[in-house]
């Protein structure tokens, strides 16, 4: 069903005025924006999270946008790589995948209080007797999609640092379609641990999807670069430069309020940092370099299916 949904989404985008080269950001040919599906909200909710940002960019740059939400991380990557999207908000891992396929280029990363990073965690229930990542040996853990840095790649790094290889040292591996699905599974007693970003945990708690008072943090990741705003490699350089400059200067523009500058989870952010580079991403991902495609494939086989 996941593959069918992704294909249907790509087919839907294919009904749009299709060639990226023909889209110049004008009113008649707005730039197509694709967003990865955020946790804890509806598709319309994720779109609403970012509309203030793109409306502000239109006001300051004159570029126009049509904003849509992918059905999955994979669908968002494919939209960029097949020329159906010009701009994307991707997760750090999905950006690196699209970049390595020659499809995407980094534009900017949200920053608040001087930080352009966020954190992943592994959570357990307080009454489970689990107080550290080491206690998860022989237990069950729920992860998010493999394209997610904060619900898959970096939580696996936490386990590996604790001496636990999830391919063989867990009793059960569940791989879901979102951070929230794992947290809900944990709240319902279906697993012993769940991986998610702290942003997604907060959003799930605030929405009532989970009872946060029952949870404890048993592992915390190293800093992860915030989900980046990227452009399709095929976007004309002049449009790319115009958009990057507009993102970098947005927080300084008259008529733009703090409510207009939004990021992950719809939160207000201070600004978009255009000085972050691919080297910064590679430095952050170096400790989890072992969580490569072969490792991921083995864990997916262990899980047997997405849930």
From TrEMBL:
Q: Which residues form the signal peptide?
A: 1-20
Q: Which GO terms describe its biological process?
A: transmembrane transport
Q: Which UniProt keywords apply?
A: Signal
State the GO CC annotations. ATP-binding cassette (ABC) transporter complex
Q: Does the keyword Transcription apply?
A: no
**Would I find Signal among this entry's keywords?**
yes
List, alphabetically, the PANTHER family matched. PHOSPHONATES-BINDING PERIPLASMIC PROTEIN
The entry sums up its family as follows:
Belongs to the phosphate/phosphite/phosphonate binding protein family.
**Entry protein name:** Phosphonate ABC transporter periplasmic phosphonate-binding protein
